[in-house]
Amino acid sequence: MDYKELLKKLSESHGVSGHERGIYDLLRKEFEEISDEVLEDNFGNLIFKKKGTKGKYKVMLAAHLDEIGLMVKDIDEKGFIKFTTVGGVDQRTLPSQEVIVHGKKELLGVIGSKPPHLLSSEDMEKAIKIEDMYVDVGLPKKEVEELVKIGDIITIKRDFRELLNDYVSGKALDDRAGIVVMAVCLDELKKLYHYHDIYAVATLQEEVGVRGATTSAYNVEPDIAIAIDVTHGKARGVSLEIELGKGPAIGKGPNMHPAVYKGLVETAKNYNINYQVEPLPGPSGTDAWAIQVSREGVPTGLVSIPLRYMHTSVETGNMKDIISSGKLLAYYIANLPEELEGHLCY
What we know:
Blueprint: H1 3-12, H2 24-31, E1 37-40, E2 46-50, E3 58-64, E4 69-75, E5 81-86, E6 98-102, E7 106-112, H3 121-124, E8 134-136, H4 141-147, E9 153-156, E10 161-162, E11 167-170, H5 173-189, E12 197-203, H6 211-220, E13 224-232, E14 249-252, H7 258-270, E15 276-279, H8 287-292, E16 300-307, E17 315-318, H9 319-334
Parallel strand pairs: 3-12, 3-13, 13-16, 14-15
Antiparallel strand pairs: 1-2, 2-12, 4-5, 4-9, 6-7, 6-9, 7-8, 10-11, 11-17, 14-16
Helix pairs in contact: 1-5, 5-9, 7-9
């Protein structure tokens, strides 16, 4: 499997929270070759099951499929589309972006605002407010209203780019990169012997409240779970310790079970996989938070891919981190003992 090509396809696909179904066919096609069964639960989460040799215990992997985006709020008298946000969109990054309005048919548009020539010196010093932006699709109001309705989704149009030194950039690497990590893991497990059934879940609506993780964990009832997401990577002007190209970040804190954390670290050391430790003293803000407290509680871990410029259209990561994250998970799963009862004690 070409993991970079898969990430490109996923990044350039569109699936704002609550509207992820447009990516289902792509995922099914890519994952049916590396999993034994493809399931869909009532909420819409896609679950890729890979059977173990015993099948007594369940190991759940979770990476969210949804992305942040925009939603049509109004159409003014000139045909300009006013919008609001879905998820944590940074409004400072929106002016001059190319977008796709997903109405009765896809409409290419641009996000416009008042030109700097017409701004006061005071306004020039301020970020443009989202209520002062609009999408211009080049049509009059009547024609726009025939194609676009209030509540329609708008996504950023951005091509995936390969940078130097295995760096890649594009939209929605949060968390389509995590989906690719699951693909690497399942692909690697085809070569390995493992006792336990694997449930790799592409969760929905993480960006608006870890909803897919909540429902899928309740449904799967895993014995162990590991969430896969992105984390803020070191960048210019940002005082962070997690670096791109230095391997996955393994979360450590109350959201993560100590035995799962220890197992991931030991696996990384035993297989010479570079890794970093991410201290998380409170809620992790990922699917791990919902999974941990599902039903009676689930021993949960977190593996994160270092990422720059999160929640922008130029999110930047490193393919080496993505591939090593998938291999780390595969080797961890392959080394889990046949009986897990004593393995997960505090």
